[in-house]
């Protein structure tokens, strides 16, 4: 059998499909038959259907009659007056243009409803099966794929409807892909490397289920066997080339719901699926989309509205009807949404005050008064060396007046380093910028020995930073997902600049007699979206000494690792505790290495709260790597927090407001009392859930039952699409993306 190329093939491998639908439908005939907005009979015009002689002759007569009728209607449609009976009233060009526009708008709405119906109707399925899809990390994921006319729906499982994404097939190409592995491999791709994904799911989902990152402009798919793969290619080619035929055939066979009811009851907007057309019924659309469609339900585009107004009120003004009609068509074909001026996002206000602290040991010591020493001795009677202090109630005089969820956001005041790293082409320089960003999160510290609040279960915190150079925003969202053990989960996103970061921290405390350590057990995962690179990093521990005798001092200790498995680069940084006989220069010391595999490329030396130098092994040149000077601190990214009136009751600032006020007023008695009220309410809620047999459900994060990792429910790890994505914003704890189409 002669092959016509990797895409144009006969349907030989999938008999079930080729026996029902014609493999060679002339798309031009379908468009012409649909030009008047009706569902015409397609069988006489389609090759490949078996017919008897009588049927053929009858078909010719019907075709001739249809063509003659089409010609007369076409003349009326185009506004011609030559073949219209003189007894009938003449149609002016103005009236003819109105008729054309009316049919034009009706045809657009009909096409919209057709696609919505085929997507949402469970009975309209061309093919469905498990397929393996390769992600951007070059690993394979088994996903449930459902092929419908014009779209390929991808799910995690076939039962619970965990939607992953929707591929728009209208601009895709299909080609067989050679592979050494078992099975049959093929590629679905956009020839101009544009995004192939729809913005919304079949039920209006804004964010798909969490899987490994998938490419934006193509999909590499593997079927279990060659026969299955060729059957999928036949079905996909059918959906690619003959989607109109498929939709209309299924309508004629009664497999589609009523169009009007489907459009009204389905929470799917064309704004999320087709990117350019408008849905007439907007009752169930979100407020943002309803505002966008407000003026476009009656008119297909701006020119239609303006022209109709000119024709009714100013017949003698403006350009000719032909010129207006051409302009209208051009504007509709290249329609672009206006800038989003009515997005109802969370209101953020710039932080008015923050405490940075000073470099050196002086800012990390605490002189304890006699009154507070008695409180410490009372506390020490409850503990023994080696004991975990997570369940011990600490006195309020050592508390920093903010939550631990807020404390974790200190690492992103220099998130612009990550924006630079995402653009860096050299992998070694990219790792250096990541290490530089990592070190930039430690110099911000309160004066003295202070510990942030232990977050309440369900407590959340939100903030953001604005990048003036790239006109982007870095959003930070955290939630206390467990109380015993205390686990804090966080998610950071700046899709426009190409990075996101997620992780969870289990806070542990150990008492050693005259000292204690606060251990942050967990890891963060930084992802560069356009590269598919993950940088996994750990945290140092905080060490407090001088509890019983000597000066109470806080230090950082331990060895942390930053590793990128894809590039092979890694960094190791050791935070050193001050030795017993050390001088002031030995306070807050660090040393580190940047390596490629086992080869050391650079050495880091310095202090984590001041200057760090780097020595390149190859050139033996040393230079300043990082130094938080006053100028650096002054020009760092400003942080914005949620307006107090818009905060939820369980957001950190509002939740701890009474305790914070008392600490700032130096009223330790009231602070202790208000802290007890919050902790007692948490204990009472835990007892009630236990009696009812209820499990705590997190608001923003889910835990992976296999790995135990916590994931942000609304994470969007797609690369930023400059042609479609317009703005990333946050509303009620969900980070969303406004799209152009």
TrEMBL record:
Instruction: Extract the Pfam families matched here.
Output: Oxysterol_BP, PH
The way it spans or sits in the membrane comes to:
Single-pass membrane protein
Q: Does the keyword field hold Metal-binding?
A: no
Region (Disordered) residue spans: 38-76, 285-342
Where it sits in the cell: the answer is: Endoplasmic reticulum membrane
Which BP terms from GO are recorded?
Answer: lipid transport
Q: Does the keyword Kinase apply?
A: no
- Give the CDD domains listed for this entry: PH_OPR5_ORP8
Kindly list the GO molecular function terms attached to this UniProt entry: cholesterol binding
Q: Which family does it belong to?
A: Belongs to the OSBP family.
The name this protein goes by in its record:
Oxysterol-binding protein
Species whose genome carries this gene = Dryobates pubescens
């Amino acid at each position: 059998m002669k092959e016509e190329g990797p895409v144009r093939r006969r349907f030989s491998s999938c008999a079930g499909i080729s026996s029902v639908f014609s493999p060679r439908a002339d798309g031009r005939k379908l468009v012409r038959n649909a030009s008047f907005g009706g569902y015409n009979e397609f069988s006489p015009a389609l090759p490949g259907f078996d017919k008897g002689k009588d049927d053929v002759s009858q078909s010719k007569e019907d075709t001739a009659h249809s063509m003659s009728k089409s010609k007369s209607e076409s003349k009326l449609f185009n506004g011609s007056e030559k073949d219209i009976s003189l007894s009938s009233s003449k149609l002016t060009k103005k009236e003819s243009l109105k008729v054309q526009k009316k049919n034009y708008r009706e045809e657009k709405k009909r096409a919209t409803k057709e696609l919505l119906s085929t997507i949402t109707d469970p009975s309209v399925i061309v093919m469905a099966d498990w397929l393996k899809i390769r992600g951007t990390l070059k690993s394979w994921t088994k996903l449930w794929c459902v092929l419908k006319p014009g779209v390929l729906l991808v799910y995690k499982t076939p039962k619970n409807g965990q939607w992953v994404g929707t591929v728009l097939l209208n601009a895709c190409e299909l080609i067989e892909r050679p592979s050494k592995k078992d099975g049959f491999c093929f590629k679905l791709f956009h020839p101009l490397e544009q995004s192939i994904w729809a913005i919304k799911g079949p039920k209006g989902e804004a964010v798909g289920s969490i899987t490994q990152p998938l490419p934006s402009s193509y999909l590499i798919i593997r079927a279990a066997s060659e026969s299955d793969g060729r059957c999928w290619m036949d079905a996909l080619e059918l959906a690619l080339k003959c989607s109109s035929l498929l939709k209309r055939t299924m309508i004629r066979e009664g497999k589609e719901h009523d169009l009007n009811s489907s459009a009204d009851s389905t929470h799917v907007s064309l704004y999320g699926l087709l990117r350019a057309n408008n849905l007439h019924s907007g009752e169930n659309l979100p407020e943002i989309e309803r505002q966008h469609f407000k003026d476009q339900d009656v008119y297909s585009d701006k020119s239609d509205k303006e022209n109709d107004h000119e024709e009714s009120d100013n017949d003698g003004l403006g350009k000719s009807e032909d010129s207006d009609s051409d302009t209208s068509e051009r504007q509709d074909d290249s329609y672009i949404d206006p800038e989003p001026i009515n997005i109802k996002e969370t209101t953020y206000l710039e932080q008015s005050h923050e405490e940075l602290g000073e470099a050196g040991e002086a800012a990390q010591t605490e002189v304890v008064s006699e009154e507070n020493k008695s409180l410490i001795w009372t506390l020490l009677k409850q503990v023994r060396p080696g004991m975990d202090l997570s369940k011990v109630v600490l006195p309020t005089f050592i508390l920093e007046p903010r939550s631990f969820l807020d404390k974790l956001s200190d690492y992103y005041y220099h998130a612009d380093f990550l924006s630079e790293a995402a653009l860096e082409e050299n992998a070694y320089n990219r790792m250096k910028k990541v290490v530089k960003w990592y070190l930039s999160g430690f110099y911000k510290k309160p004066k003295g020995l202070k510990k942030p609040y232990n977050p309440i279960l369900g407590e959340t915190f939100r903030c953001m930073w604005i990048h003036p150079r790239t006109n982007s925003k870095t959003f930070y969202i955290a939630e206390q997902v467990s109380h015993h053990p205390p686990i804090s989960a966080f998610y950071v996103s700046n899709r426009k600049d190409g990075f996101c970061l997620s992780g969870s921290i289990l806070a542990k405390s150990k008492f050693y007699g005259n000292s204690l350590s606060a251990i942050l057990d967990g890891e963060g995962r930084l992802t560069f979206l356009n590269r598919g690179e993950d940088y996994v990093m750990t945290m140092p521990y905080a060490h407090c000494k001088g509890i019983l005798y000597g000066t109470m001092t806080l230090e950082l200790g331990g060895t942390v690792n930053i590793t990128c498995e894809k590039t092979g680069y890694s960094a190791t940084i050791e935070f050193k505790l001050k030795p017993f006989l050390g001088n002031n220069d030995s306070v807050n010391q660090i040393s580190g290495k940047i390596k490629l595999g086992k080869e050391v490329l650079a050495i880091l030396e310095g202090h984590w709260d001041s200057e760090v130098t780097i020595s390149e092994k190859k050139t033996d040149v040393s230079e300043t790597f990082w130094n938080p000077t006053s100028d650096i601190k002054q020009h760092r990214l400003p942080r914005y927090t949620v307006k107090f009136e818009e905060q939820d009751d369980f957001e950190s600032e509002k939740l701890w407001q009474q305790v914070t006020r008392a600490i700032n007023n130096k009223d330790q008695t009231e602070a202790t009392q208000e802290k007890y009220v919050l902790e007692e309410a948490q204990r009472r809620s835990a007892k009630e859930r236990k009696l009812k047999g209820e499990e705590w459900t997190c608001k923003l994060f889910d835990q992976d039952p296999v790995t135990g990792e916590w994931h942000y429910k609304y994470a969007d790890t797609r690369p930023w699409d400059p042609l479609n994505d317009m703005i990333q914003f946050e509303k009620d704890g969900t980070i969303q993306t406004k799209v152009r189409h």
